[in-house]
Design goal:
The complex is a heterodimer of chains A (263) and B (275). Chain A has helices at residues 32-40, 77-84, 117-127, 132-146, 161-173, 191-206, 218-224, 242-255, 257-262; strands spanning 13-28, 46-61, 66-70, 92-97, 101-104, 179-183, 210-214, 227-232, 235-241. In chain A, helix 6 links the parallel strand 6 and strand 7. Chain A is an alpha/beta fold. In chain A, the strands form two sheets. In chain A, strands 5-6-7-3-8-9 form a six-stranded mixed beta sheet, sandwiched between helices. Chain A has a three-stranded antiparallel beta sheet with strand order 2-1-4, with helices on one face. Chain B has helices spanning 17-26, 28-43, 50-71, 79-106, 108-113, 119-149, 159-183, 186-201, 216-219, 223-237, 243-274. The longest helix of chain B has 32 residues, at 243-274. The chains are: A alpha/beta (263), B mainly alpha (275). Chain A binds chain B through residues 22, 29-33, 35, 82, 85-99, 101, 103-106, 109-110, 112, 114-115, 119, 122-123, 126-129, 131-132, and chain B through 2-13, 26-27, 29-30, 32-34, 37, 40-41, 44-45, 107, 109-116, 183-186, 190, 269, 272-273.
Amino acid sequence: MRKSFDTPAPPAVECDGVVKRFYHYEHRTTTLREFFIRTVLRRPIHVRRAHFEIRRLDLRVEHGEAVALVGANGSGKSTALRLIGGIYAPTEGVVRTHGRVAAVIELAAGFHPELTGAENVALYAAVMGLSSRELATRYETMIRFAGVEDFVDVPLKYYSSGMRARIAFAVASHVDPDILLLDEVLAVGDQAFRERCTERLREFGRAGGTVVAVSHDVETLRTLCTRGVWLEGGCVKMDGEIGAVLDAYSASVTKHPSLAALG
Amino acid sequence: MITRAAGAAIPSYSSDRRDNLAELWRSRELLVRLVQRNLQIKYQRSVLGFVWTLFNPLLTVAILMVVFRYVVRIEIPAYWAFLLSGYFVFNFALQMLNAAVTVLRDHAQLSKSAAFPAEVLIFAATLSRLAEYGVAMLLVLAALAIFHHGGVPIGFAFFPLLVVLLLLAVAGIVLPLSVISIFFYDVEHALPVLAMMLFYISPVFYPVSMVPDVIRPFFFLNPLSGLISLHHSALYEGVVPPLALLGGMTLFSVGVAVLGYLIFDRYRATCAEVV
């Protein structure tokens, strides 16, 4: 984004009154025969009940911010991330993003075990929206970052799961997005690699990149993020400085031991 | 009611169709990679490779040859050439119908974790089969030129146009079918029956001229009838195909492609959510 001096730069991410409803089907017509019968009888084709993933989300993330989304399972963190990443469409409201978005929702989605490491890097980079020219200039860096120089011509099925995750993170973090969305992908690889990831993300933040991260690893979030957003039941329960939000969230989890097991 | 937000730079969906087309154009490198991947996975660990791809249709053609030449005795000169010029068209269409049912489900994980237009997956499946079809048809054209025509007839010049028509018609059917089959699993069950019917109501082993006049208008409701018939004229007879049929099929294919895309576009937002 080019910044002009007279108007303030638009925020990196803007969610305005975003609602995301999914439907739980009490009766779902799955055969065409039933579909025709129900059409003729003017019965509803599906009997469905809405349940909310996101009840109401208003969120502004400025450029350069690193936001942690925390909350129990089913609180809508991943859905929020998918909405921001443009993978899901909001049921109501508007999601605006300014700049290139890279969403790392699931590491290694699109990887194929029969292809070599190098081929998978190329494919995953294309999934992430990298052009082949951009890939050519970054390929060496990605491979070195992942530490798999000696394995690039080996089919992926012979890789360890840690190596796979490292390749995926290496590609995703070298897409050079303006906004990086991370869903539970901070805790990959061994200790050394995790430190390299953290360093890479810090560098990204210093260069003005925006991060929205979902994780259950409170300590990583504390070192990486500047702001915390606590979601509960699809609404924002608390939004503020990272330390305060994480402390409040952790306190609520320990108060309800049953939730701690879920969380 | 889905109220879609008209936000900027939201990649996988938009209420503005031009945005979706622009996004498709931006995803062209992904499309190329996926086609590469499809072909590579299919062929890299197979010694005979493309021989297998040819084996199935050629075996079918051989059986049809024996049955309808020597048992049922359809009187068509150079019956083998007649079968070759139509069967591969039918086979391509059939493979695409089968692919339509599985392609979105096969990539469920991918479409839930990255924002890209879902039709890229469908086009990748189509193009990788088109590549195989292209190679197979070059061999067929060579065989027809050498053993049937003894030269390259004028009709062969129409082959590229026929490929485009076939591609448009098939894409126009596969796009909505792939979305329907994530909602209705019975598409998968119905397909084998449909395929069997389609084989008999398409002019694969008999020419259109053998179809009684009474049912001919209904006969052409099957889009494959017109397409295969055009291939018979251009490849088997080697003549300029009947222009009325060519014009009609051009209108039809373009219409189906546009309509199919519009239906797909209407439901694209559900692709990542439902699969």
